[in-house]
Design goal:
- This protein is of the alpha/beta class.
- Helices cover 47% and strands 13% of the residues.
- It has 8 helices and 7 strands.
- The protein has a 7-stranded parallel sheet with strand order 3-2-1-4-5-6-7, with helices on both faces.
- Helix 1 crosses helix 7 and helix 4 runs parallel beside helix 5.
């Protein structure tokens, strides 16, 4: 997968944020795109924009919580392009707030999108890549898949699961021509903390959840640009590299857990004495 020109990428959560940046970078590399999202108007707009710039683009509305929807995406991609080479299981949501304030429907929405959406995407596309003898899978987790913090416990649980799933998948496919990467970014300038806009059950955040989300929405403006994340992803695909860390603070913060384990300490603040994330 060092040569991306002429290949085909499928990206979920493609209408905004990291997903859109991935599509823009893949198009710049000369790849054809199958873009999918649940936000239909935004998807149609971005498909038209990238298509008008010369990219070969297919837009398909897909809800990653539904395996049949992902199968339809796969089939449409194969019908249009004849192959799929890169699958980015990127769609995600980020409710926040105390875990004691999380309702069953909050957990269901979070796990269905963040974890099962990735699992279904892997189950749908990985056999195809293995059979054709070429490809790469990128699963979007988060630094929250390596590091925990208060008020993001549910989100962190889902992203830890994505890291575990991805690492196991890497080991299962290590002897095949299919590469696996897990993307673990810190703050990126996206609308991830506004993801309830796409919530189909109509539930609003609770007052405590709103109180947690408000400062996060301000903080994320200081994150890195999604285009910088896309650069990291393309490098990792070419290098067949598993870990994609976008911020220098991530490694030390993740290792804090193992330092605590080695010392027999209870969990400490992983960011204590460390630099704030890059903007």
């Amino acid at each position: 997968m060092k040569q991306l020109r002429g290949k085909v990428a499928v990206v979920t959560g493609a209408a905004s944020g990291i997903g859109l940046a991935l599509c823009e970078r893949f198009a710049a590399e000369g790849m054809a795109l199958a873009m999918t999202d649940v936000e239909e108007s935004a998807l149609a707009r971005e498909v038209a924009r990238l298509g008008s710039s010369g990219a070969e683009v297919l837009g398909v509305r897909c809800d990653v919580r539904d395996p049949a929807s992902l199968e339809a995406l796969r089939d449409a991609s194969l019908h249009r392009f004849g192959a799929v080479h890169v699958i980015c299981n990127n769609a995600g949501v980020a409710p926040a707030g105390p875990m004691l304030d999380m309702r069953p429907d909050d957990w269901r929405w979070l796990v269905d999108v963040n974890l099962l959406g990735v699992a279904y995407g892997v189950g749908c596309f990985a056999p195809l890549l293995v059979e054709q003898g070429e490809g790469h899978i990128v699963n979007t987790a988060s630094e929250a898949g390596l590091v925990t913090s208060a008020m993001l416990g549910a989100y962190s649980a889902s992203k830890h699961a994505v890291v575990g799933l991805s690492e196991s998948l890497y080991r299962e496919l290590e002897d095949t021509p299919v590469g696996v990467s897990v993307l673990c970014p810190n703050l990126v300038r996206t609308r991830i903390f506004e993801s309830e806009r796409n919530r189909s059950d109509g539930l609003d955040a609770t007052p405590k959840q709103h109180a947690t989300l408000a400062p996060l929405r301000e903080l994320i403006h200081g994150g890195i640009a999604p285009a910088a994340v896309a650069d990291h992803v393309v490098d990792a695909i070419r290098e067949r590299r598993f870990w994609i860390l976008t911020h220098s603070v991530t490694l030390d913060s993740a290792l804090a857990r193992f330092e605590d384990l080695k010392a027999g300490r209870n969990p400490s603040d992983p960011y204590a004495g460390r630099r704030l994330p890059e903007g």
